[in-house]
Fold this protein.
Amino acid sequence: MTPTTPQPATATRPPVPREIWVLIVAALIIALGFGLIAPILPQYAASFDVGVAAASAIVTVFALTRMAFAPAAGSLIGRFGERRAYLAGLLIVALSSLMCVFAGSYLELIAWRAIGGIGSVMFTVSSMGLIVRLAPPQARGRTSALYGSAFLLGNIIGPVLGAFMAVLGYRVAFGIYAASVFLAYLVVLIFLRVNASGPTLTDERPAMTLREGLGIPDYRALLISGFANGWATFGVRIALVPLMAAHVPAIGAPMAGVSLTVMALGNVAGQQVTGRIVDARGRRPVLMVGLLIAGLATVVFGWSVSIPVFLGLSALAGFGASMIQPASQALLADIIGRDRSGGQALSTFSMASDSGAIIGTLVAGLIADAFGFGWAFTLTGVALLSSLLPWLYVSRGRGAGSASRPRPQPLHD
């Protein structure tokens, strides 16, 4: 299928719908709560007298259950609609986090976090589906950027608040997280009125199947770049940046938190601009530039030997990531369209990112042990740069006729 011609930009930008603002507020509340527990997760697990590997597994098990349950989450969304699946996911995360407060053993803690991963993928994929459905086509980049910025701001502010609350203990932090997720549940339940009533419980819109999505070159390319972005942004940077900072004497362990904050700030600041560029100039070009910037910054990141270079590359990597996420979500929305349910396609995209985070972290960790952090980050940067190749293929129009149906919305190329 030949990509459609971009529509000319209108003088007046369409407003962000009220329902999107509800999702943004809920995302900020959830992220603030998660920010409280993120720094203390391994320490809480270690408090049950287990080793380092077992303590770090509390992070891995959450991602594994997210990935494993993603196909089922897509089916549930297709059957019951995004709003109900979103609410169910929030309730599962809130209750499982509350049970973590009362965990009496390491295995109990791991089990409740695993159940939390199921709820997490349900509300994550549902939120993507709701943005696809509710965002005006000419504002998909902007709405995706606003939603992503809410999560990033929460992840910046949350750990700061958590540092002041650390004296209260691990269990109190999980209790606050459970309360924050339940508050987000109430916000969505009360203010998000999509599919709130009707003669049936099911989502009556026709579903876009995974097989149909895989027949579209843009979607296949999205899965590859989503895997690479998950590897770099959600895996290696979170897991290896703190270890690298502690390993390099000229940088030092305290700079790890500063680096992650600088990355997040670069991402937030960039998304305020890149979201609008995605709508005005096109999805693919912005996505490709983001992959290029993030990839080049990551290739050399692990060889940093001074704090200014370390933080400068952190900001650059964050800015590159600010282009990837809004462009990816806007293009995914273009492919699915507002009048179709994209449960399977959305959950598979989420699964690609989660699998990248898991596999990339494991591979980069092994490389770091054997050859050093420089080569681990270089490999990660190469993964990002390699994910440009399918986009070059798609942009040149090769295989563009493989899709079996017209896309419901223009792809702004």
In short: The domain at 18-198+207-402 is CATH 1.20.1250.20 (Growth Hormone; Chain: A;). Residues 1-11, 195-202, 398-413 have pLDDT under 50 and may be disordered.
